[in-house]
Amino acid sequence: MKAFIVDRYGKDSGRLGDMPEPQLRDDDVLVQVHAAGVNPLDSKIRDGEFKLLLPYRLPLILGNEVAGVVLRVGSRVQRLKPGDQVYARPRKDRIGTFAELVAIDEADVALKPKTLGMEEAAAVPLVALTAWQALVDKAGLKSGQKVLIHAGSGGVGTIAIQLAKHMGALVATTTSTENMALVKGLGADVVIDYRKDDFEKILRDYDVVLNSLDARTLHKSVTVLKRGGRLVSISGPPDPGFAQEIGSNWGMKQVMRLLSHRIRKKADRHGVSYSFLFMKASADQLREIGALIDAGALRPVIDRVYPFESIREALAHVETGRAKGKVVVKLI
Q1: Which of 327, 37, 325, 40 is nearest to 186 (CA)?
Q2: How far is CA 124 from the centre of its chain?
Q3: Does the keyword Cell wall biogenesis/degradation apply (predicted)?
Q4: Could you write out the three-class secondary structure of 151-216?
């Protein structure tokens, strides 16, 4: 089967080539890939940024989210059958959606929302699960609370704004001048043009901040939170709680403790909590997200769709950080 393969870590690595079809385990479904979402995570894995946390064996097929059709199922699969239209974010040790076929554990696969086409559905799993786990699971966001979502026009931001509004929160976001209308249309109540204004001088007494930007933004974000507020970051640094979640050895736990020491200390001084989120695969949550999409509460925002043969260009576009919503590659 054709696939996008990483033979070695590095920015200029990655090629289109042939790989064997994936082997189907008893709990797996084999999905014929119609479309796959492209994310900053893909570039970071290719570049080797996560090789200590995610020790992949090379050669590696890249790709972290998918929409397609079930071709075959393993002997223990109960919920899904051949012909089902599905979407998924495979678990972190079984990525590989930049290919004609991918085998995924049934526990990570959900039926595709009925109101979405394949390309739209491929743009949802990773970012929607990230937003859900940050706002619902980590932050416990409640109706009437105030949340700041950084980079509101990005893949995670466009979904997180909609989800937070659906949950009844007041939503502030940061974006550039040209994207202000987009984020307001998604439901943002307060929009800050980061090129003109400093968010930390404008916002006060927020309950939650979702950070996806750099360390400087992360540290500034502490000051906009009220006591008892929650700062959740998907761009790091990883903290001891995350080390515990993934079962790191003692050495890695100490590394993560050191990496996050400064932000955890600052958070403690301000009476707020800091946590790092590396999103997990979940069919159960994808089913809830799909119901919200079909009810009209959420919709994916797609910047561009590339043919599979142009996957390097798709990755390069995502790396610019200027995509509005999601970038997708189409196979069928």
Answers
A1: 325
A2: 9
A3: no
A4: CCCCHHHHHHHHHHHHCCCEEEEEECHHHHHHHHHHCCCEEEECCCCCHHHHCCCEEEEEECCCHH
Confidence of residue 317 (pLDDT cuts 50, 70, 90): very high
CATH of the domain at 75: 3.90.180.10
> Which residues, 6 or more positions from 55, have their beta carbon under 8 angstroms from its beta carbon?
none
Q: How many domains does the chain have?
A: 2
Please identify which residue in the block is written with the tokens 């980061």: 194
**Residues near 128 by beta carbon (within 8 Å), at least 6 away in sequence:** 159, 163, 286, 289, 298
CB atoms within 10 A of CB 288: 14
Per the structure block, which two tokens stand in for 158?
A: 């466009």
Q: Using CB atoms within 10 A of its CB, is residue 193 exposed (0-12), middle (13-18) or buried (19+)?
A: middle
Cβ atoms of residues 169 and 185 within 8 Å:
no
pTM of the model: 0.96
Please, how many CA atoms are within 13 Å of residue 52, restricted to the half-sphere of its CB? Answer: 10
pLDDT reported for residue 207: 98
Using DSSP, state whether 328 is helix, strand or coil.
strand
Q: In the prediction, which pLDDT does 71 show?
A: 98
Give the chain's largest Cα–Cα span. 58
Give residue-wise pLDDT tens across range 96-115: 999 999 999 999 999 999 99
Q: In whole angstroms, what is the distance from residue 134 CA to residue 208 CA?
A: 10
199 with 148: CB under 8 angstroms?
yes
What dihedral angle (degrees, nearest 10) is formed by the CA atoms of 289, 294, 296, 298? Answer: 30
User: Are 157 and 79 in a shared domain?
Assistant: no
Q: Based on the domain organization, do 108 and 212 belong to the same domain?
A: no
CATH number of the domain within which 136 lies: 3.40.50.720
Domain limits for position 52 = 2-123+300-330
